[in-house]
Write a structure and sequence with these properties.
By secondary structure, this protein is an all-alpha fold. The chain has one domain. It contains 6 helices and no strands. Helix 4 crosses helix 5. The longest helix has 27 residues. The protein is globular. The protein starts with a helix and ends with a helix.
């Protein structure tokens, strides 16, 4: 399932999150409730997706997982910034 999620994530991280929620239990392992994954789905989809797969049940996110999470966060911020810039340039 991991390779399929990566391929789908290249098209849409939100679709990959939805498919992960639908076909695996990784979201329930990485998060206690539904609220944080829902906020992540709306505002930080790459960060939420990477956190879901970097999280280990007993240890949490460790080592290189943190590097991937930080990189995903920067990608999400870049997407928000570029969308704002495109909207501003269009007006």
């Amino acid at each position: 399932m991991g390779c399929l999620v990566v391929l789908v994530a290249l098209v849409s991280p939100r679709l990959a999150l939805f498919l992960t929620w639908l076909f695996s239990d990784r979201l329930s392992i990485a998060f206690d409730g539904w609220f944080l994954p829902f906020l992540g789905f709306l505002f930080l989809p790459w960060t939420t997706l990477v956190w879901t797969f970097a999280y280990q049940p007993v240890k949490g996110v460790t080592g290189i997982g943190w590097l991937f999470v930080v990189f995903a966060f920067l990608v999400d911020l870049g997407a928000v910034g570029s969308a704002g810039r495109a909207r501003r340039d269009r007006d």
